[in-house]
Specification:
single chain, 283 residues, seven-stranded mixed sheet, four-stranded antiparallel sheet, 35% helix
């Protein structure tokens, strides 16, 4: 039995900078991995590759991104068993903008490459993952990165200073295609200060990072969803967060705190108020 962890991704900044060939949108984002994630095991055997999880509504066959990653790895390398069960213990909220499914796929690629002698470099694993999803290349490596292109062009950045992070999940799911379409239609007045965040990271200035965090998709959410995100951000800031921002296309909103104990207190307080919250730190 093979085990691997899958880590949630946060967008400290997220901007859409244009269109690419094939109809894809060009993005520019400072991405950060966290120590909050899912647990995966791969158990060779059976008659096919399939997945099981503690969330019964998730697909079990080739529609599951983790299964697709395993099949693609075998197709490219010829390595690994002909059949296996991928057990996924899901902690990362589904459809939260935290790259839960992409992280699962990346974890499968890492585990299979390591355990079955795939011989692929980290960059080769990233390129392989990019065939399945735009967030998978980052999830293969994690850390602090500037993501450009579709998200597959990655440049390492100075690590985010150690801090506490609280992730809150408002009760809605957003449509990624609809939000990209909305961005295309609007002339947005505010854009992320990505260069400022990169400079703050270089200076190990946590407050500078936190106060510059911004996600362009917050400006194009439907009114009711925007109100829920604003309420969640306000609750995090009222609880002492140095800054708060939506991740991806939502709905998860995260707050950055000066230290882990401050984040733990805020997470407990917000949970008592009925919010769905998770405590973590950058990794």
């Amino acid at each position: 039995m093979i085990t691997e962890r899958s880590y949630a991704k946060l967008n400290l900044t997220l901007d859409v900078t244009g269109l690419l060939p094939g109809g894809y949108h060009a993005v520019r984002s400072v991405m950060q991995s966290t120590d909050f994630g899912d647990e995966l095991t791969i158990e060779p055997g059976g008659t096919e590759w399939r997945a099981e999880s503690n969330l019964k509504y998730l697909p079990t066959g080739a529609a599951n991104l983790a299964v697709r990653a395993a099949l693609l790895f075998r197709e490219v390398t010829g390595k690994g068993p002909e059949a296996a069960l991928i057990r996924i213990s899901k902690n990362i909220p589904v459809c939260g903008g935290l790259a839960g499914g992409s992280g699962n796929a990346a974890a499968v690629l890492r585990a299979m490459n390591r355990e079955f002698g795939g011989g692929l470099s980290e960059e080769e694993l990233r390129r392989l993952g990019g065939k399945l999803g735009s967030d998978i290349p980052f999830c293969v490596s994690g850390g602090t990165m500037l993501a450009e292109g579709r998200g597959e062009i990655l440049s390492p950045l100075p690590p985010m200073p150690d801090c506490g992070i609280v992730i809150c999940r408002p009760n809605f799911s957003s449509s990624t295609p609809e939000l990209f379409a909305a961005v295309d239609k609007l002339r947005l007045r505010m854009r992320p200060d990505t260069e400022g965040v990169i400079a703050a990271l270089a200076a190990a200035d946590l407050e500078g990072v936190a106060r510059r965090m911004f996600n362009i998709f917050e400006a194009v959410l439907p009114r009711r969803q925007a109100a829920m995100v604003a309420e969640t951000r306000g609750a995090l800031l009222d609880s002492g967060a140095l800054g708060a921002c939506m991740s991806g296309t939502g709905s998860a909103v995260f707050g950055v705190f000066a230290d882990h104990s401050a984040a733990a207190n805020a997470c407990a307080d917000l949970s008592e108020q009925g919010m769905t919250c998770f405590l973590c730190r950058p990794c």
